[in-house]
Each structure stands twice: as C-alpha cells, then as structure tokens.
Design goal:
The chain is an alpha/beta fold. The protein contains 10 helices and 27 strands.
Length: 489
C-alpha cells in the first residue's frame, strides 16, 4: 500500500497526478493506494481534509469557498479511481468520522466546562453558550442527503461563539452523561479531540453515517478504509459501521484504524480485542522504534527493533509504516525517521513475511514545503526521495516469498533469508546501523554453487553459495544489502 499524499500536498492537482501515475505504481508492485480525505473540509480547497465539513461533497459543490477540494474536483477523483481500477489497484479511502468543522449556523446550547487535562472533571456550573453546530450544507441543497446536523449530534466543542472563549465544553445531552466510552483513560476520557465532536449515541447520527458509508462505496467502489482518529471514537460504533458496510457491499472491506499510541502496545491490543479483530491498526510502536533507532545510530540495539510492536504480536493485524503525514516535520506528532535509516526501515517492512507495509509518498517521490515553526519563523523543509525504495518495492514483488530465517544475533548487524518458491528466487538481506558487516546465513542447498549479487549495489562483489547452502553475506556501513541470484537480474 502507498499513502499517496502528505500534509503539504500542493493544491489542486493530486487526482490528475494519480490518474497519470497509476501504471507506474502498478509496475513497482504497489497493490493498494490510500487516498487522502476526499470530502469538502472547513477551509475548502486549502484543507488537507481532516477538518471534515460535508462528507457528501467530493469536490462537486460551491461550499467553504471553493468547488474543488485541495486535491481536485469530483470528476477528477472519479477519473483517478477509474485509472486505478484499470490497473487492478485497490482503493483505500480515508474516513473522518470523529468530528465536524465549519458549521453553517450558531445554536444556543447548555453546556459545562471541563478541565482540558481531565475531561471528567467539571470546572463550571451549567451555562448557555453558542456553538457552530448547525450544518445545513446550503451549496449541496439536500442532494444525496437531507440530513441536517444540529447540537444534538455532538457531545461538545472547543469554542464558545458567544464570547470567543476557547476550552472544552461538554453539552448536556439526552443521549448520556458526559463523553462517550473510549478505550483509554488518557486525559480522563479522550472522546473529545477537536472541533464539534460527533455524538455516536444519537441513533439518527449513527444511521446517517451508515447511509453515507454505503453511498461513498456506491460512488467510488473502494476496497478498503483508513479510519481516522479511532482512539477518540467508540470502538463499538466503529465495529458496527464496518459490519454494516461489509454486509451491504458483500465485500470483505479492508480496514485499518489510526490509534496512535507509540510505545503503548497494550492499548493497541485492547482496541483490537474490543473490535474483535474486525480491523487492523497502524503499528505506531514500530514507527517509534524506527524513529528512535535513526536518532541513536549504532547506539541502538537492532536486535530489539521489533520489541513491543504490533507486528511482533499480531502480524496479521499490523499495518507497518516508516512515516506518515502526522509524523513528518512540522506536524503535531513530529517524529520523523532520519533519512539514512529509511532504507533499513523499508527493508524491515517490505522484505519480511509479517505485517502489511505502507509506503509514504515523500519517500517515493520526494517533497518540499514551508511552514511556521514554534518560534514563529518560517522554515523550508526538504524530504528527499529514498533512492533505494523503487528497488526494494520490486524486490518485495519478485523475491520476498517462502520460508523466513532470521539471524538477529548482533546488536548492529541483522540478517534474514527468504527462501523463495517455484516462481520467485530467494533473497538474503543484511543491514547494519554501524560498521560494515557480514552475516553467515543459510540460503539452501538448492542454490549450491549459485552466484549472488547485492542488487542495491552497496557491496561490489559476487558471492558463491557453498555446497551446504550457506554463505557470508555482507553489507556496507549504515546501509542495507539485498542479495539475489545473479541470473535473476
């Protein structure tokens, strides 16, 4: 899978670009494409899409200052989807259900203020406030859905439009006291994240979101969903939403949730248990290990790279990543993997049997952008393409098959072998976060006498497999080498 966007994707052309690059992605061995949020958000054509406004507006209506979304028009989106399907690439859509932003009208509502660090602690008496909780979508004028959102559809907001006050305000609701039930007790209850928080205990809201999911599938014919901010949404609702969608479509819709909890594997496991394994999760713990390893250099014990990760304990439900739009520089969860370590990280997710790997757009194409730092100054950021990424993707497509034998016996130098199958030749992978190294590994007697070469070109020599099926496979300092039969080049 590829995440085909980043936080600073340029405005207006992504859908057209994706249409043109469908064949290129297919040739690399990409099988699924994760699209950014396709619906109109509160800042229209400027928005990345996570400040959701009108889920039914895919760049079709003049709302929030534009007809197109940041990525283009609905017609351009449909053309890109058609191009992907023609190349037999699966489509993963980004689903943002936690909140809505950019309300059309203010309403008066009774609320209480809560402590921002403990949302279960009430710090005011009930009072009347005003909030932008009326969503009428005048530009769409009832097309596709006549549902009107009002304050009964939300649990709370972070802005009192009556006096400009900012905080966290919990509505007094007929659907339950306080916040909805979530997995963790972080901040007392982390149901509220931002904007107007959706009230999933309201039956009318639930039914509208069920209807919308079916409408979106019927419109785009997607194959999977990336579920935003599931950490802040009732897991029972998310499970029900998925089951209803699968029941209607008759398809085993793939789902991956964003529950970002680096180093807190028990929370990821609890979420998977609560949703009965109906969805996968991004392995935020593995990303954290990659980030940590990339900053420590040879001070990181590579034998521990998978310690405490989802891919280690539930590989069939782990989507593995190097970086994403939230962890890239200048973002709230900024924790980028240093560029030198990216080839090692990608080898660890692309060439192993466990997990479902996801490639980040800037790692394949490069990116540059400007943003304001915490000191108020503007900074230009360059994210260079990972030069090895295309070859690593092709190696996954052509060689990452068969039995996996691990040689994780040195703090700075790891190796493993994939023995291949009848159609795919074997490969041997060696990587080091320190000095150059070598790893004695068994590739199998089937390859006795066969010459192997480092297809990444880091080590310029040929290695002959001994009669017993073993060889000493080498790698250069701070890099990865992937050895394959010379005859398969």
């Amino acid at each position: 899978m590829i995440q085909y966007f980043h936080w600073y994707t340029p405005e207006g052309s992504l859908w057209n670009q994706l249409k043109e690059q469908a064949g290129f992605l297919k040739d690399l061995g990409i099988t699924s494409v994760w699209l950014p949020p396709a619906s109109k958000a509160s800042t229209g054509g400027l928005s990345v899409g996570y400040d959701a406004y009108d889920l039914y507006d895919l760049g079709e209506f003049d709302q929030q200052g534009s007809i197109p979304t940041r990525y283009g028009t609905k017609e351009e989106l449909l053309a890109a989807v058609k191009a992907l399907k023609e190349k037999d690439l699966k489509i993963i859509v980004d689903i943002v259900l936690n909140h809505k932003a950019g309300g059309d009208e203010k309403e008066k509502v009774m609320a209480i203020r809560v402590d921002e660090e403990n949302r279960n602690e009430i710090v005011s008496e009930p009072f009347e406030m005003e909030a932008y909780t009326k969503f009428t979508f005048p530009g769409r004028n009832g097309k596709y859905s006549e549902f009107i959102w009002d304050h009964q559809c939300f649990t709370g907001v972070d802005h009192n439009a009556k006096n400009g006050d900012h905080g966290i305000f919990s509505f007094l609701s007929e659907y339950g006291d306080g916040w909805d039930e979530v997995i963790d007790d972080e901040k007392g209850n982390y149901d509220f994240l931002m904007y107007a928080d959706i009230e999933f205990r309201n039956p009318a809201v639930r039914e509208e979101l069920f209807r919308w999911g079916i409408w979106l599938h019927d419109t785009l014919g997607f194959d999977g969903v990336r579920l935003d901010a599931v950490k802040h949404i009732s897991p029972h609702f998310m499970k029900e939403w998925l089951l209803r969608l699968r029941e209607h479509t008759g398809k085993d819709i793939f789902a991956v949730g964003e529950y970002w909890a680096p180093g807190l594997l028990h929370l990821l496991q609890r979420y998977l248990d609560t949703t009965d394994g109906e969805m996968s999760l991004f392995d935020s713990s593995l990303h954290h290990n990659f980030h940590h390893a990339s900053t420590l250099g040879n001070g990181f014990d590579m034998r521990k790279i998978f310690d405490g990760t989802l891919v280690q304990v539930s590989p069939h439900l782990a989507v593995t990543v190097t970086d994403n739009h939230d962890t890239q520089p200048m973002q709230a969860l900024e924790a980028p993997v240093e560029h030198w370590f990216k080839p090692l990280a990608y080898a660890l997710i692309l060439l192993r049997a466990e997990g479902y790997p996801c490639v980040f757009y800037p790692d394949l194409f490069g990116a540059s952008y400007w943003d304001k730092g915490s000191d108020g100054n503007d900074y230009e950021i360059f994210l260079n393409k990972v030069e090895e990424i295309e070859k690593l993707l092709q190696l996954r497509r052509d060689h990452a098959y068969g039995e996996q034998r691990d040689y994780f016996d040195h703090p700075n130098c790891l190796g493993w072998v994939r023995t291949g199958d009848e159609e795919h030749p074997a490969c041997a992978v060696v990587l080091s976060n320190g000095d150059s190294g070598f790893k004695p590994m068994e590739i199998g007697t089937l390859y006795a006498g066969v010459t192997f070469v480092d297809t990444l070109g880091k080590v310029d020599e040929r290695i002959a497999i001994r009669d017993d099926g073993w060889a000493d496979f080498k790698c250069a300092p701070g890099s990865v080498s992937v050895w394959i039969p010379e005859s398969s080049l």
